[in-house]
């Protein structure tokens, strides 16, 4: 069962998201809150697998809330705004995914499942712009992949292709637990908070 916390200050939007998620047999909505501070407090208490987080909220914005929850739970941003400052801010804060509110119900459900498994996910409408911008920045300051072992570089390449831990295990002939360990070590050495950050960094390398 995937335990989800929904944080959005618009009651109608929040109710709609909750209704969609509660219709799935493998998803349980453990709480719904209307601001970022409540999202942080509830997530620390309830430890959901995924927090669906809006960007613009009272008391504490979604990016700041995401930063506070880094390492505690996976955060999937769900917002109306696809501004660069929000996209980059959310990913730097450690968000595992970024979706727009025009995403259909099936895509939202699948996104929650992917993020709960430790995968990264970006809305198709922002991916190309994000990668182009990051690649331009990385060209001026290339990432230091020299800190990685050869195996960790292979794992990074798999992450950049969007492979899950199970798929990485099959690709590189290792157990899923070993793949998960390599992903964790790779992210740590590169100072990254999510697989999405790793995939973008690899694209710009």
UniProtKB/TrEMBL annotation:
The keyword Transcription regulation is assigned to this record: yes
Pfam families associated with the record: GerE (PF00196), Response_reg (PF00072)
Residue stretches making up the HTH luxR-type domain: 141-205
Keywords tagged on the record: DNA-binding, Phosphoprotein, Transcription, Transcription regulation
Gene3D superfamilies reported for this sequence: 3.40.50.2300
Record PTM 4-aspartylphosphate, positions in chain: 54
Domain of life: Bacteria
Alphabetized InterPro entries for the sequence: CheY-like_superfamily (IPR011006), NreC/VraR/RcsB-like_REC (IPR058245), Sig_transdc_resp-reg_C-effctor (IPR016032), Sig_transdc_resp-reg_receiver (IPR001789), Tscrpt_reg_LuxR_C (IPR000792), WalR-like (IPR039420)
Response regulatory domain boundaries: 3-116
Cross-referenced PANTHER family: TRANSCRIPTIONAL REGULATORY PROTEIN NARL-RELATED, TWO-COMPONENT RESPONSE REGULATOR
Protein name in the entry: Response regulator
Organism, as annotated: Sphaerisporangium dianthi
């Amino acid at each position: 069962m995937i335990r989800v916390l929904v944080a959005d200050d618009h009651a109608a939007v929040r109710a709609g998201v909750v209704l969609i998620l509660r219709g799935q047999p493998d998803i349980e909505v453990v709480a719904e809150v209307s601001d970022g501070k409540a999202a942080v407090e509830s997530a620390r208490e309830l430890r959901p697998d995924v927090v669906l987080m809006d960007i613009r909220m009272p008391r504490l914005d979604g990016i700041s809330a995401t930063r506070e929850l880094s390492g505690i739970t996976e955060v999937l941003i769900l917002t109306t705004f696809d501004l660069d400052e929000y996209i980059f801010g959310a990913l730097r804060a450690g968000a595992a995914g970024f979706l727009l509110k025009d995403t259909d119900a099936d895509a939202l459900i699948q996104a929650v499942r992917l993020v709960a498994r430790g995968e990264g996910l970006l809305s198709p409408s922002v991916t190309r712009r994000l990668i182009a911008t990051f690649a331009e920045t990385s060209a001026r300051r290339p990432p230091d992949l020299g800190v990685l072992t050869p195996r960790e570089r292979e794992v990074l390449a798999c992450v950049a292709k969007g492979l899950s831990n199970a798929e990485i295990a099959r690709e590189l002939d290792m157990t899923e637990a070993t793949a998960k360990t390599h992903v964790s070590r790779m992210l740590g050495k590169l100072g990254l908070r999510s697989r999405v950050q790793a995939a973008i960094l690899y694209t710009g390398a």
